[in-house]
Every structure is written in structure tokens, then in C-alpha cells.
Amino acid sequence: MSDDHEQQLVEQVRRAAEAGSPLAIRGGNSKAFYGRAVKGESLDLSGHGGVVSYEPTELVITARAGTPLAEIEALLAEKDQMLPFEPPHFGALAPSPSPQGGGEPRATSLPRGERVATFGGMLAAGLSGPRRPWGGAVRDAVLGVKLLNGRGEVLKFGGQVMKNVAGYDLSRLMAGSLGTLAVILEASVRVLPKPAVQITLVQEANEDQAAGRLVAWGRKPLPLSASLYHDGRLWVRLSGAEQGVAAARAVIGGEEADGDIWRQTRDQTLPFFQGDAPLWRVSLPTAAQALDLSGATLSEWGGALRWLRSDLSAGAIRRRAAALGGHAILFRGHDGVCEVFHPLPPAMLLLHKRLKAAFDPRGIFNPGRMYAEL
Amino acid sequence: MNAPAEVLLSPTQRSALLADLRNALPARCVLAEAEDLRPYECDGLSAYRRLPAVAVLPETIEQIRAVLRVCRTHNVPVVARGAGTGLSGGALPLSNGVLLGLAKFNRILEIDPDNRVARVQPGVRNLAISEAAAAHGLYYAPDPSSQIACSIGGNVAENSGGVHCLKYGLTVHNVQAIKLLTMDGELLEIGECEKPGGLDNPGYDLLAVLTGSEGLLGLVVEVTVRLLPKPERAQVLLAAYDSVERAGEAVAAIIGAGVIPAGLEMMDNPAIRAAEAFVHAGYPEDAAAILLCELDGTNEEVSEEIMRVRQLLLDSGATEVRTAADEAQRQRFWAGRKGAFPAVGRISPDYYCMDGTIPRRELGRVLGRIEELSVEHGLQVANVFHAGDGNLHPLILFDANRPGELERAEAFGTAILDLCVAVGGTVTGEHGVGIEKLAPMCGQFTAGELEQFHAVKAAFDPAGLLNPGKAVPTLHRCAEFGRMHVHHGEVKFPDLPRF
Ligand SMILES: Cc1cc2nc3c(=O)[nH]c(=O)nc-3n(C[C@H](O)[C@H](O)[C@H](O)COP(=O)(O)OP(=O)(O)OC[C@H]3O[C@@H](n4cnc5c(N)ncnc54)[C@H](O)[C@@H]3O)c2cc1C
Q1: Could you give the 3-state DSSP secondary structure of residue A311?
Q2: Which of B116, B166, B391 sits opposite A219 (nearest CB)?
Q3: Count of A–B CB contacts within 8 Å?
């Protein structure tokens, strides 16, 4: 039973808090590569699964942290709905979901040894996919969480309603916190209807042409929902009502292409993402000029997300990103050689430390996963 | 009474404070005479009024920092104020504190059409951003009804919404960077302020925590907001119903059919009649409820969806469905909705605006119960409702000059908010807690949850000098209200040390 499971988690956290011993929080381990390495006893959320409630007309789904992301997506798809932020899985797309929706919470256990994205891990990692600039990020969809803080207290913030300003927004704070503040036990997120029509178009362009087109299209009310530029080709996805998509297609131009490109980009199965060179995730203003660093690049999000495979030093990459108004994350291939996340200025780091202490005074949750000091 | 206890500075304390503030700021920026302080005695929750010890209207970030330094030295609390349109008493001054007005920070610093962002000072009015962006075919989406007056700094502090937030989100979804002065005088950039336009930032999502923090965590001294391309076309449908329940079901039907309208608003009969008398919007005055449903997008999209939604509305039992014939009529349909508060203000000496959110499916039940509560409390109520996202604004009509009516209105309001929490909703959707909803907060959150909020506050403002006593009740206050939230007869983990 999940309530018993919750109680076990509470007890494990309280024991760790008393002893001051670190816990490494894990869901399905699909994002184990992301962030700095953590040493600690494993706090396993994979057995804490199950959809708690899903009501399509309320546009909300509530599920326990260990629920496989694939199960949630399949449940939503049955009602022609989706997670607006198109989260990456970075793992097996199994297991297959059980058919019934809503009602009794279901405990699902993950197949052993497989890396499977979970709902809680999705939220803690805070990573969004191709739809992000138009559909919002993970944090934008978060409505509420049930969490376990470093004192072993089970707390609920937010809820299942769209608008809620009672108290500070601590649910959205969990998005991208990489388990360093609290254990996410359960979360409610907003869902959206699937667009009636979706098409993918591809056209030839050099880097400057592609950037120019994306900026020009971005200033118009077009039903864009994804963009990808790599190796002389620019892909664009249009989503919406049939007539609107048809009209936008005439504006954008290009050939119709296979829409599977977006899943391959999202889960990084494209050839660009294979290989050993370090993979940098560079976040920049949409219209920022080209990165102009040695290495291969692939860009998404209308230009706001640029992937770089490069052996340049972290310092060189970060200086360039910062000069353009952005920041750089060493996404894959760091082997503990350098800091994964862009360093914070001292005053910001101090505030981060204080915030961490406000949730986790003994510093037991995923210490060092995000920054060495947290 | 919800207002925090009145504490006064001694005359010597006050004159020492004043002397230091006058040293730090130009004379025109410091107000100390009662008649100069009067305009700052309340915000939009005008039932509560008090004068601050001093008001300051700084003109530069350095001056704000100097004010904070003086306040730290004197251990005096600071209350920020934007335009003062807040409806929960967030900007109510403290009698022993400094009221810090941001009205002079009213410049739009930059509009960057390629990155689709605007960088503005906190005192800039919400509507002024869209006006300035219009030349580029862009606009700022969140549109509170108070948008001609309210400031973007206030919007950030309250996480304000508007009639279009169903599709375009609240303030939190549309802010990309904030320059924040902490009470310690530290100037933090949350997100990239100088070259804005990126979609995420390193570290924790502090933008989320700050948005809606009601001036308790820091002073917002610059905001970068996201701009959107103006939709090619917007069209509004007006549907009339002979029962509010049926109108509520229509809302579920539209959303269930996969349509996310740009706006989906409901008004009940008393609100319809008040609005009609005020702006002559052309509403059907005999309807039990009306829905306003706006669709926007490209020309083709709107044409396609309007037919679909029209049919959905008819199928859901609408007695009448009208489409605005032209832009002027569309504006009139909206004018009635956006003017609903002042319209009710004309038919009643006072009104008290509530702001709970409920799951939409509970709409019929909640409105039915509000009707009963109206009879029990002997006060009339008009309902306007951001139906698409479940945010209710019952307006309780009363006359503050009649003894006991304000208290009755407050009791009625508290009962409505308790009801919202009981059906799985929240005590405030967009107006904030301020001083007004401290008591219902004790019912919505456990002691541990409230303590977690206080711990977050202490991380930003260890001395507790920014807008103290607002937004999050202390456990002590909850005990005074007699409203400790107790689960299964016991406080959670009574043996664990508290923050
Ligand atoms: C007729 C009317 C209609 C309204 N309609 C809506 C609506 O549709 N949707 C909605 O959400 N709200 C609505 N409101 C409420 C109100 O307009 C909003 O809450 C608005 O955001 C407040 O902005 P303000 O500048 O007036 O802030 P103020 O009232 O001055 O302050 C509000 C809070 O913000 C803090 N604050 C202000 N500026 C700063 C700053 N720079 N840094 C830190 N803290 C700051 C204050 O301390 C206070 O706690 C309405 C109000 C009225 C009177």
C-alpha cells in the first residue's frame, strides 16, 4: 500500500535527519547522468507510484512520484490530452500502462534494472522538451505538490486548481531543484488538449537564415510548437486547428517531414547526441547571435536552446554563453571533471544555501547534486 | 478584525528615523505630514486604513537601498506600494513603519521585439506595457481588470491574473527576469536582466517563489516580461443560460471538447444587471447567468473554432448565443465584465470582493451554497467568475455605515472561503492573502506548512522587516483566530523542533 510506503519514506528521512547522513533520492534512474554525483543511502521512490486522480475536464492530473511518465502520457492520450511541456524521458518508454483511469490509486512497480522516467523525476529535473517556448516549461504546469522535507514532515502546497496564490509558490520551486530541497511524494500538473492537427515542415537554410526566419516567425501569431536547426536544415512544427495550420504552412513553406524527429530530439536519440564529446546545454536569448565556438551545434526552442558538442574548456564556453545573456550546463560527459551547472554569484549562492537550509536543515537531500555547496 | 496590532514609534524614535531618511533622500522624496501621508493610508481593501510613520518615494535603486539601510539601523519595518489597487491589504501601511512607494519608477527601459521581451521599472502600469509594445505587433498578456492603474511590480507581488489567463497564464508564466533588492540591501538578478530573453536560469526557480510573495521577500526594482504576438483576430461569444449550473456544465463541455478559449467568464444575474445598468453592454438582463467565451488566433483558426464553440454552447442548453458583430461590440461585451466591480459599487454603498478558486466541477454546488449563506447572513451577493479556471469573485453587498454590516460581510466572506477549501480549492486565486485572508490561511494549511513558509521568508529576510504580519499567519495568530488546522485531532510531529 502506498500510504505504508509513504510512512516508510518518512521514517527513512527522519532517521537520516537524526544521523545527519546523506540520502540519494532516485525514481527510475533515467536522469542519473544529469547533475553532479551524489554519495548517500538510496531513497527509492520507484515503489511509490500510482495515479491519484485524473479529471480531463478539470485539465489536471495528480500522481505519485514513482509513477512512470509513460503511464501518465498513455492515460492522457486516451482522452486526447497531453503534458504541455513534452518532457524528455531519457530512458525506456516502458512499462505499458494498465487500462483503467482515475479511481483507486494504483501502485506500479518499475521493472528492475531498467531506466524509466518517473513523474517525480521529471519534476525534480525540470527539463522540458521541444514545445517549451510555446507550451511552457514543467514549472509552468505545476499546480501543487505533496512533499517530505528534511525534518520528515509531509507538507502540501498548491493544489489542483489553476489559480492559487495562498502562501509562497513552493510547488513550482520544486521544479528543477534536483531533489536538493525536499522529496517530492506527489504532484498535480496541468494538462492540455492535444492539438487537432500537427504537421512538421523542413527546409534548407544556413545558420543565419534559419535564425532570421525564426525571429521573424516568432513575431507573428503563428501556431508554432517546435523548431530544430541542425546541419543546414530547419524543421518547424505547427499545431492547432486545421485551417490555422494550413494557413501557417503557406507562410512557413518547406516540405512535409516525419514528426518523429521531435521525439528523437527530445530523448536525444539523434546521431548528433551520440558519441563521447561533452554535450553542453546552452540557454540563450532567442535572438542571440550564433555561439561561434568550435564544435557541432543543434538548436531548438526558436533559438533559445543550443546544444553544443565541444571539447573546449568550461570557462571558455561559459564566458561566451554569459556574454550572449545566457548560461551553460555540462549536460553529458562530465565525469566529475568540472562543475555541471553555471556558477552562481556569491550573493545568489548564499540565498540558495539559506533556502536549502529552510527545507533541509541537516543537508541530507542529494547533497552536491546541483552545486557542491547545496 | 484582521489588521495587525497597531504599534507606534515613540516621538524620539520617529524623529531619529525621519532625520536619517532626510539625510539619505532628497527632501521631495520624504513625506511626514499627516495630510501628505493620507493618500497612502489604504489600498483597494479600503475598510482598513492607517497612516505609516513615514512615507518615502525614492527615485533610484540606490535611494531604495539607502532607505532599507536606514530601516535596518532603526529596526523599522518596510511596506512596498505600487499603485495601491491590491484587494487584500498587502500595501496597508504599518504605523511603526516606512511606506515605500514605487510610483516614480515608471519608465519602460527597453522593448526588444526580436526576443519578445520588455524590460520595465516596477511602477510602470500594466496596460502601458502593451501600449508600448503595440507598435511591434506585440502585447503583454496578463490583463487584470485594474490594468489601467495597477503596476507591474504589484502584479509580480500578487501573481495577478486577468480574463485571458486561461490560455496565456498568470503573471508567473509571463515574467522572465526580476531585479530584486533584498532587505539586506543586496541587489540580485533573478534571471538575465541586462540581455534578457532566455527561457531558464541556473539554480532554484526563484522567479516562482517571488511571484506572488506579496512584498515579503524582497523589493522588485525591475521586471522583464515576455511579450506575445497580437493574435490576428479575437472573437467573443455571449451565451445566456436559465441556470448557473447549466452555464457551469457548458464550461466543462467546452474544455472537455479540447478547446482552450482565450477567456471564459461567467456572471450571474445580479452581476449582469449591475453591469448592464453601468456600461450598457447589451447583456440579456433576464438570464440567470451568461458566459463570455473569447477565441483568438489566426483568422482561419478563429473562424473554425467559433462555429464549434457556438454549437457546443447551444448543445449545452444556452437559451441564446450571440457573436459580437464587430470589434466595437466585442469591446462592449468585455466592458461589462471588466467593469463588473465598479458596476456593483454603484448599486451598493460598499462591496466586499472575494477571490476563492474551486475545481470547476464544484461550481453548481458552491454557487448554491453561497446563495444559502447570503440568506443566512442577510446580505446580497453578485457573482463574477473566471469560469475557465475556477476562480470565483463573489461580491458581497453591504453598507459599512450600518453597525455590524462590515463584520457580517467578513463572516460571510470567511464562510465562502472555508467552502472553497472544503471542496478542494483555495482561499485566494489572484488577489493575495494580505491581511484579509490570514484567518482562512490557518484553515487551509497545517502548522508545519505555515512554518515552512516562515522558514522561506527567513531565508530571504532574516530580520523579518519586509511587510511583516501579512500573507502568512503566525501560529500564534492562528491560535488567536481559534483556527489551528489540526489533522485527526493532533498537530503533526509535535515532538520535532519547529523553525
Ligand atoms: C477594480 C479592481 C479590479 C481588479 N481586478 C483584478 C484582476 O482582474 N485580477 C487580479 O489579479 N487582480 C485584480 N485586482 C487587484 C489588484 O489590481 C492587483 O493585485 C494588482 O496587481 C496590484 O497592483 P498594485 O500596483 O496596485 O499593487 P499594490 O496594491 O500597491 O501592492 C500590492 C502588494 O504588492 C506589494 N508590492 C507592490 N509593489 C512592489 C514591488 N515593487 N516590490 C515588492 N512588492 C511590491 C505590496 O507591498 C503589496 O503587498 C483588481 C483591483 C481593483 C481595485
Answers
A1: coil
A2: B116
A3: 279
- Are A162 and A173 in a shared domain? yes
Among protein residues, the one whose CA lies closest to atom 2 of ligand 1: B146
Q: With CB atoms and an 8 Å threshold, state whether B389 touches A161.
A: yes
What's the pTM value of the predicted model, to 2 decimals? 0.95
CB-ligand 1 contact for B212 (6 Å cutoff): no
| Cβ of B272 less than 6 Å from ligand 1 | no
**Is the pLDDT score of B488 beyond 70?**
no
Task: Tell me whether domains B233-343 and B348-481 share a fold.
Answer: yes
Query: Where residue A199 sits, what CATH number does that domain have?
Result: 3.30.70
Q: Is B357 in the pocket of ligand 1 (CB under 6 A)?
A: no
| Distant-in-sequence, close-in-space partners of B496: CB < 8 Å, separation ≥ 6 | A151, A152, A153
Residue A213: all three cell numbers together:
526566419
Asked whether residue A58 falls in the same domain as residue A24, the answer is: yes
Rg of the Cα atoms in chain B: 23
Best mutation site among B81, B100, B105, B172 for ligand 1, i.e. most ligand atoms within 8 A of its Cβ?
Answer: B81
Average pLDDT for residues B442-467, to the nearest whole number?
97
Higher pLDDT pick, B221 / B248:
B221
Rounded to the nearest whole angstrom, what is the distance from the C-alpha of residue B382 to the centroid of ligand 1?
22
**Right CATH number for B11-101 from 2.40.37.10, 3.30.43.10, 3.90.79.10, 2.120.10.30?**
3.30.43.10
For B391, residues 6+ apart whose C-beta sits below 8 A from its C-beta are A161, A162, A163, B161, B355, B356, B357, B385, B429, B430
> Are residues A96 and A225 located together in one domain of the fold?
no
CA distance linking residue A305 with residue A288, whole number of Å: 10
CA distance A240 to A250: 15
Do B433 and A218 make contact, defined as CB atoms within 8 angstroms?
no
Residue B409 contacts residue B396 (beta carbons within 8 Å): yes
How high is the pLDDT of residue B293?
Answer: 97
- Total number of domains constituting chain A: 3
Partners of A248 on chain B (C-beta within 8 Å) are: 298
Hey, are the CB atoms on B301 and A244 less than 8 Å from each other?
yes
The mean pLDDT of B158-178, rounded to a whole number, is: 96
- Is residue A35 located within the same domain as residue A121? yes
Residues A36, B265: Cα–Cα separation, whole Å: 47
The residue range of the domain holding A251 is 195-272
